[in-house]
Amino acid sequence: MPDIDLFKKDGQENFAVTLPCNPNDFGAFISGLLGKPQTIEKAFRGTFEVSKDDIINTFYLIEQRIQQQNDAQLVQFTVKILYNDDTSVLLNSIADFEHYTEVRPLESIGVALSWTYLIKFKK
Fold it and tell me: pLDDT (tens digit, 9 = 90+) per residue, 79-122?
């Protein structure tokens, strides 16, 4: 049930509806209001060696290129690390990824990177 707040401003009653939700749900809601999102996906198969620094550098490279070309706001970035015991860890920001250290003696076998941007394209 949403909270309804009543407050006075300039002697008039104003009403506000507060909807509790997490940032991911709010981002999806706003994106849905603004139009149909475009998705670009690419999977690379094979044996690769990707370091933590490679992922961090890729994040900042894409961020730089998008900011140079468009008026854009990063809504969400996630890194999903897949391990050899069929478990995974989902990290919800580049800062979380930069500071994450797995304590279990596992081998990482895959990584999935995801960016969500709100972009105002230039005419």
Answer: 999 999 999 999 999 999 999 999 999 999 999 999 988 887 76
H-run or E-run covering 23: helix 23-34
Position 115: which residue type? W
User: 4 near 15, Cβ under 8 Å?
Assistant: yes
Strands (E) in the chain, as ranges, are 3-9, 12-18, 71-83, 88-91, 108-120
Place of tokens 């920001």: 93
| Cβ(28)–Cβ(37) below 8 Å | no
CA atoms within 13 A on the CB side of 82: 7
Residues facing 31 on adjacent strands: none
Instruction: State if pTM tops 0.90.
Output: no
